Amino acid sequence: MKTVIFLCSYLFIKGIACYILTKQENEALAQICGLYGREMGGQVPRIERKVLRGKNADIKDAPWSVAIKVAKLGNRHRHSICTGTLISPWHVLTARHCFMQETEDGLSWVNDDAPIDWRMCKKRDYFVPQKVLKQTQIVFETTCGTKKACKAYRIPLPKVKRRAKSIVLLDICPFQRWHFAPPDVAIIELAEEIKFNEKAHPVCLLNNETLVDEDSLIQLFGYGDDPSLGKGTKGRLRYELSRKEEHKDHGDRWVVTHSISKKNLACRGDSGAGSIVKINNRFTIHGVLSRGDPCESATLSSTDHLSSVAFLVDRICEYTGICQIEYSTNHTTKGFYDENSGKSQIFHPFLFLPIVFLFKILNFQ
C-alpha cells in the first residue's frame, strides 16, 4: 500500500492521473476476468492462425483485443496502429515501442519524430507527455481498427473509443536508447472506463507462480498487416495458434513462440497484442508481443518474441491495482493495496497537502 500511495502522490504532483483499483474492485475483476465463450454464455473463440497467411477473426472471438492508433502530428489521417489487451475497465496492456521509435540519434516519438525528454522518467519508468496522449486513441468492440479496413471489409465503423489519460512505459529509463529493451510493455490508463459486454471483456493476468509449459498452445490476435494479401490489409483482426518455445538465453523476461503451421508471423500493427493461454478455464494473458522476424521472410523456422507478463505482475499491480489474490487459512490477499486504496481515497486533496509541502521543500524533481 505504501508503494501505491507514494507512486500516486508523485504522479498527482506531476499532474498525471493514477487510477488504482480498490481491493473490492480487484476481487470483483478476478471473479469475471478471462471467462468467455461457453463459460459466459457466448460463442467459443476459434483457434486458428493469425496475420501473415492468417484467418480473419471477429471481435467476439477475442473481446479483450483493442486497436491503438497514434496519429501523426499535423496530419490526423496518418497514424500508426498497434494492438492492445483489455485487463480492467480502466487499463490496457500494449507494447512500449508503439509510442517510441529508434533512430540513429536515439529514441524519438512515433507521432512527431521529436527526441525523448528523459526528465519525464520516474526512476525506471517513463510517463508519456500530453502531446502524445492527445494523439492516441484506443478503439474497442471492433473487428476493424481503422476506417480503411472497415470500408474494405464492409464492417460497421467502431463507435466505442477512448483517449488515454496516462501511459507509463515500463523500465525504459535505464536503457534510453533501445526501444525493444526488456520489457517492451506499456500500461494505458483510459480517460473513461469501459463497460464489459460480449465485445469488450478483460483477460486475467498470468501470475508469477503459474508456469506455462514449453510447447503450450497460445492464441494471438492482432490488427496488423498481412503482406500475403497485398497492400492495405492493416486494421483487420486476425489470429493464429502458436506454441511456446524453450529459449534459455532469453531468461524470464521474454517468451518465444512459433506458429504451429509454420506459415504465420506477427506483422506491423500486431505489436502489443497479448498472447493468450487458457488456465483453469480462463483466458489469461501470457505475454505482450514485441518483435519477430520480418513478415516478408520465409516463415519455416521464424519466431515471435513477447515480453513476459508473469515477470511484470508486481509492476502492473503498482500502477493498476490488478493484483494477485492469494487465499490462505486467514484469507489474506497479496498486493500493494488495502481496503482504502481506491482512487477516491488516493485523490482526496487534504491527503496531499503535507506531501506537496514536503516535495516543495526538498525541491523534488
Largest sheet at a glance?
Answer: 6 strands, antiparallel, barrel
What portion of residues is helical?
10-25%
Distance between the termini: 23 Å
On the 0-100 scale, what is the average pLDDT? 75
What is the CATH C-level name of the largest domain? Mainly Beta
- Whole-number tally of structural domains: 3
CATH third-level topology of the largest domain: Thrombin, subunit H
How do the strands and helices of this protein lay out in sequence?
Elements: H1 2-13, H2 23-32, E1 55-56, E2 65-72, E3 75-86, E4 91-94, E5 100-103, E6 106-109, E7 121-122, E8 125-127, H3 130-133, E9 136-140, H4 147-152, E10 160-169, E11 186-190, E12 204-205, E13 217-222, E14 238-245, E15 254-259, E16 274-279, E17 282-292, E18 304-308, H5 313-320, H6 343-346, H7 349-362
Parallel strand pairs: 12-17
Antiparallel strand pairs: 1-14, 2-3, 2-9, 3-4, 4-11, 5-6, 7-8, 8-10, 9-10, 10-11, 13-14, 13-16, 14-15, 15-18, 16-17, 17-18
What does this structure look like?
- The protein is α+β, with helices and mostly antiparallel strands.
- It folds into 3 domains: 48 residues, no CATH class; 159 residues, Trypsin-like serine proteases (Thrombin, subunit H, Beta Barrel); 96 residues, Trypsin-like serine proteases (Thrombin, subunit H, Beta Barrel).
- The strands form 3 sheets. Strands 13-14-15-18-17-16 form a 6-stranded antiparallel β-barrel. Strands 2-3-4-11-10-9 form a 6-stranded antiparallel barrel.
- The chain is globular.
- 45% of the residues are buried.
- The C terminus is likely disordered.
